[in-house]
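To the wet lab folks,

You asked to see what we're planning to order before we commit. Fair enough. Below is the target structure as tokens, and below that is the sequence we designed to fit it. If anything looks off to you, flag it before the synthesis order goes out.
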């Protein structure tokens, strides 16, 4: 069975725990390396401990669970994105990438032993119930979350459609926890939402699943036709709070705006594992100006797209610094025993930048006006804030940035700035990165 490579950010409740998947076999050229005698002695120690637990623990343990916990402990000790998936979690992950699944519609990650909401997905039970980014889920159906793995917590929030689940949520500005009752639904992800804003095409990409590129192509054609090629000022590609998705879709979305050149490269432990992905001729937007919106919730595949278009000076990147998730995971199926998700490479933008634990800095920084009740909780810690994260190569790590998007587009300063940019309206001084696109 072939292996799949991923760049992963968080987990979607009711969907499985993987996001960015490509069909590339990154490990096909990796040769086996013999273990040292000391390694075999340590494995013997593990066997001794396992046998003691199996025979002497106060209650008869589930031996399969013991092995599974040991495997998961080994993997989660490497970095926040490596883990073991049991057969059900592996199947759920495969379903998620098709863009339809059952659950609540919450993108989550694990932080200091608790489940933290990265973002609720639009038009899902979580979004309608008022779940917000940075909410901490402390209890699921009155059971404490602390002590569970992320997969275990996500599994408890999954369930049959039309069944209820109670969440206890802690918010930074509230002393008392908030209790929310949600009814599970079939979640159908619309990866691209598009609308015409006068002479501008607005393209909101919410995640990168199997349907994203085709949906984007259709949205570009539709909005261009409605506006008219001669009247069209340009495109806004909104990647804010987009946690990632399929790597091949990130490449295809980047390619939609490029005629040539490298999109992304991956570099592993061994030189032979380096791969480069290049654009094919044909810009679907015919060279029209592009603004890409990012914020602290833009991760993985979103950062690949933003970095590629920024390095090629094909788009102006606007907003706040992105999450900083710059590593590649490979899904390695284990026959009928689930799969291992293992970090195998870092990815680099066309200019050779690693964004690991640093993120993409926008060409033009635009801050939102944060409501008083959300001030302080709009900030994400980013990859650099995750315990055990891969270190940035140059040790110049950067924390997260705001992930707040006003629900009213008329108050969305980043979006309005993007419209003004495309219409040639200057809004004061701009902050430009080293890879700066002329403003």
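Sequence we intend to order:
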């Amino acid at each position: 069975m072939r292996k799949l490579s991923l760049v992963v950010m968080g987990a979607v409740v009711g969907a499985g725990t993987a996001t960015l998947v490509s069909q590339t076999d990154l490990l096909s050229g990796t040769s086996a390396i013999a273990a040292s005698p000391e390694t075999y002695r340590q494995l013997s120690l593990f066997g001794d401990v396992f046998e003691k637990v199996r025979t002497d623990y106060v209650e008869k343990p589930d031996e399969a669970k013991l092995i599974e916990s040991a495997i998961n402990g080994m993997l989660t000790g490497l970095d926040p994105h490596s883990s073991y998936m049991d057969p059900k979690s592996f199947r759920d992950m495969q379903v998620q990438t098709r863009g339809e699944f059952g659950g609540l519609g919450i993108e989550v990650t694990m932080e200091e032993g608790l489940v933290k909401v990265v973002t609720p997905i639009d038009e899902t039970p979580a979004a309608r119930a008022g779940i917000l980014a940075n909410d901490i889920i402390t209890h699921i159906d009155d059971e404490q979350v602390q002590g569970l793995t992320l997969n275990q917590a996500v599994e408890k929030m999954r369930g049959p459609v039309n069944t209820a689940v109670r969440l206890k949520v802690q918010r930074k500005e509230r002393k008392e926890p908030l209790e929310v009752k949600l009814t599970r639904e079939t979640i159908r992800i619309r990866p691209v939402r598009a609308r015409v804003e006068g002479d501008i095409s607005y393209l909101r990409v919410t995640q990168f699943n199997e349907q994203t590129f085709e949906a984007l192509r259709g949205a570009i054609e539709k909005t261009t036709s409605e506006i008219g090629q001669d009247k069209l000022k340009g495109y806004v590609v909104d990647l804010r709070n987009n946690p990632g998705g399929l790597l091949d879709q990130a490449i295809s979305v980047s390619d939609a705006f490029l005629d040539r050149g490298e999109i992304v490269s991956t570099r592993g432990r061994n030189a032979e594992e380096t791969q480069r992905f290049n654009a094919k001729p044909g810009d679907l937007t015919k060279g029209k100006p592009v603004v890409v919106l990012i914020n602290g919730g833009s991760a993985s595949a979103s950062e690949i797209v933003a970095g590629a278009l920024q390095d090629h000076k094909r788009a102006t990147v606007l907003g706040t610094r992105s999450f900083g998730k710059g590593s590649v995971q490979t899904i390695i199926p284990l026959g009928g025993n689930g799969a291992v998700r293992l970090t195998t490479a870092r990815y680099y933008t066309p200019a050779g930048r690693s964004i690991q634990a640093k993120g993409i800095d926008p060409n033009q920084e635009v801050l939102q006006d944060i409501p008083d009740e959300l001030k302080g909780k709009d900030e994400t810690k980013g990859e650099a804030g995750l315990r055990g994260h891969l270190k940035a190569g140059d040790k110049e790590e950067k924390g997260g940035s705001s992930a707040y998007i006003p629900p009213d587009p008329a108050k969305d300063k980043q979006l309005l700035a993007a419209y003004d940019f495309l219409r040639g309206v200057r809004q004061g001084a701009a902050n430009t990165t080293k890879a700066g696109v002329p403003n």
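Structural context that might help your review: Confidence is low (pLDDT under 50) at residues 7-31, 427-439. The radius of gyration is 22 Å.

Thanks,
Computational group
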